[in-house]
Amino acid sequence: MSTPDHDVEYVYYDLIIDAIKIRYGYDFTMYAKSSLRRRIRDFMHDKNIDDPLDVIKDLIADEAYFVDMLGFLTVSVTEMFRDPDFFRCFRSVVIPILKTYPSVRIWHAGCATGEEVYSMAILLQEEGVLDRSKIYATDINISAIDHAKQGIYNLDKMQVFAKNYLKAEGKAEFSDYYHAKYNGAVIDSSLKNNITFAQHNLVTDGSFSDFNLILCRNVMIYFNKDLQTRVLQLINESLIHYGVLCVGKKETISATFLESIYKPLDSKSKIYQKSGKQ
Ligand SMILES: C[S@@+](CC[C@H](N)C(=O)[O-])C[C@H]1O[C@@H](n2cnc3c(N)ncnc32)[C@H](O)[C@@H]1O
């Protein structure tokens, strides 16, 4: 029986994904197939590789090669105050809830290079909540986490970030929160005090604490339904009663098992609150 060419290509891609799982324990089998394939293709194109078997050989032999490929397989596109409406809404809807807690535990799951986390730290500082907050920010991609820890961003991006901050109704000057050094914008170190960045894989690692607030924005969009359900389970286990969950603009918890346990605080901004019942 003959197989169409593109199917053969997909078999090789599946083998690459299997090789990664066997060799390094990273499981991409439940990621949305079409975008994962596109990213493998991008990797091969970027490295000028024609034969997928070469990818498998190099992957198995060289861990640094895998870490490089991980950057292609995971999409770490992010911005400070991305979706400014979300941050505006967060300020009016979630901050009053956080203010009722003597201490606030926050988890950014899938924080990429840290821009979302520093945006939240700025907002919390402006609202007088940062001092009693402990922020855990995690991602599967160790290079992204290293970048996030440094908190140095390209100066060219600051204009877009500043516009977002304005739209998000920030209370100060955005430039108050960084200083320029060489060609980089260095995030103010006072914003870093309450943040712990660490590697964590939502596919294989467990829940690690009782959080008042979990943000998992623009991450599940890359997962298939089964993996989304698994991650929502993990999030649900990690959030206290009446805790708040924020997902991305294009994501939803509607038609999942969380729908009956969570009520929307703002449907448009995808901000939900866990109810008392389980
Ligand atoms: C598009 S970024 C979102 C960043 C940020 N939350 C935002 O909304 O701007 C998606 C992030 O999810 C991370 N990610 C993908 N799979 C993951 C997994 N299994 N566990 C943890 N993070 C993961 C990627 O490495 C990437 O940094």
Tell me about this structure.
With 278 residues, the chain is of the alpha/beta class. The protein has two domains: 5-73, no CATH class; 84-274, Vaccinia Virus protein VP39 (Rossmann fold, 3-Layer(aba) Sandwich). It contains ten helices and ten strands. The chain has helices at 5-24, 33-46, 52-61, 63-73, 84-93, 95-98, 115-126, 142-150, 158-167, 225-238, and strands at residues 104-109, 133-139, 152-154, 178-181, 184-187, 195-199, 211-216, 239-247, 262-266, 271-274. A seven-stranded mixed beta sheet has the order 6-2-1-7-8-10-9. It has a three-stranded antiparallel beta sheet with strand order 3-5-4. Strand 9 and strand 10 (271-274) form a beta hairpin. Helix 1 (5-24) runs parallel beside helix 3. The N and C termini lie far apart (52 Å). S-adenosylmethionine binds at residues 74-78, 82, 110-112, 116, 139-141, 144, 201-203, 217-219, 248.
Features:
binds S-adenosylmethionine; 10 strands; seven-stranded mixed sheet; globular; three-stranded antiparallel sheet; Rossmann fold; alpha/beta; 278 residues
Summarize this, please?
The chain contains ten helices and ten strands.
Which secondary structure elements does this structure contain, and how are they paired or packed?
Elements (H helix, E strand, L loop, with lengths): L4 H20 L8 H14 L5 H10 L1 H11 L10 H10 L1 H4 L5 E6 L5 H12 L6 E7 L2 H9 L1 E3 L3 H10 L10 E4 L2 E4 L7 E5 L11 E6 L8 H14 E9 L14 E5 L4 E4 L4
The structure holds S-adenosylmethionine (SAM).
